[in-house]
Amino acid sequence: MPSHPTVLLTGASGVVGSALLPQLSDCHVIALIHRTPVAGADEQLAGDLTAPRLGLDPDAYRALAARVDVIVHCAAVTGFSNGPEATHALNEAGTRRMTELAADAGAVLHHVSTAFVDRNDLTRAQLGQDHGDATARPEDYLDSKRAGEDVVRSSGVPAVIIRPSVVIGDSVTGAISAFQGMHGILHGLLRGVLPLVPVPAESPVDFVPQDLVAATIAGLIRQGRRDGEVWVTAGNSALSTERVMQVVGDTAEELGLDPVRPRMVGPEMIDRLIRPVFIANLHPRARRRFDDMLAMTALFAHGHVFPTGLGREPGVPAAPRPEELEAALRASVAYMAHAKGMVRRLPEPVLAGGQVPA
Hints:
Elements: E1 6-10, H1 15-20, E2 28-33, E3 43-46, H2 58-67, E4 70-73, H3 84-105, E5 108-112, H4 125-129, H5 138-155, E6 159-164, E7 166-168, H6 182-191, E8 196-197, E9 204-205, E10 207-209, H7 210-222, E11 229-232, E12 239-240, H8 241-254, E13 263-264, H9 267-279, H10 284-297, H11 322-339
Parallel strand pairs: 1-2, 1-4, 2-3, 4-5, 5-6, 6-11, 7-10, 8-13
Antiparallel strand pairs: 9-12
């Protein structure tokens, strides 16, 4: 690996990609973009991940392949409501284009997948396929990510599969380029529209801050890693559902919000009692919101502890401690509450004589 490698980065405007860019200051980064310009990359190249040769003419493609040492493939459909065709088009077919470029360039591919491919115990029904009016279909996302990994493994190119769990905002500021995944649940909790959380209190909720994921990928590039799988997860440090609810509730109160703290119930109680008694008579929009939440939280219900490579790989950061995860979660909750305009502005202090300080 050259001391100043040329890195092709997909998904540079996304959550992981935008956090990774500052970590690659010792690399020459070419951001492959579709529509959104990217600040911080050394070069920007417009292309199409789903098209042959990335939509480039033959000469431009050959010139690109001659320069690239490392590919970091972060681009993906991460939403659960895009449908199977659009999800597989990018998460599977786009990955195939990256393996083709890696083969043509003689480059190492760092493919960002997800730790939730390990949840083989989840059936399609549990993930929302059969849950009423749900539009969120986590099974489409997980199927496409498993297919993407299969593409990488069968390609024969030198490749590292990176499996982060749920990615939240920066560990200090909570800042994130787009609210996704767990942020939707956090938003519902802050608004007080999720009186029930169908996840057992003891189930682990594995999340990691975006800067930790970025530091891991940068470390793998610097050490010249060329193969294997690296789990970027909290592992045994993952907070329980009950503790997550406590941290979110306490943070909301500190921000001046007063949401109803939800009750945690087992998923089996939903179909046996809650749906026929309470949910069936709701307005269709409210029913759909409940079913979407049910499909998303199924990812955590009765989950097991993920393996982790943090602190066990050369050049990779240590696994976060529970108290560090709690601090990162508070930062993400506070950032989202401010970004969504949910935090009430405190009144200005009044000085003697009725004056307001400048």
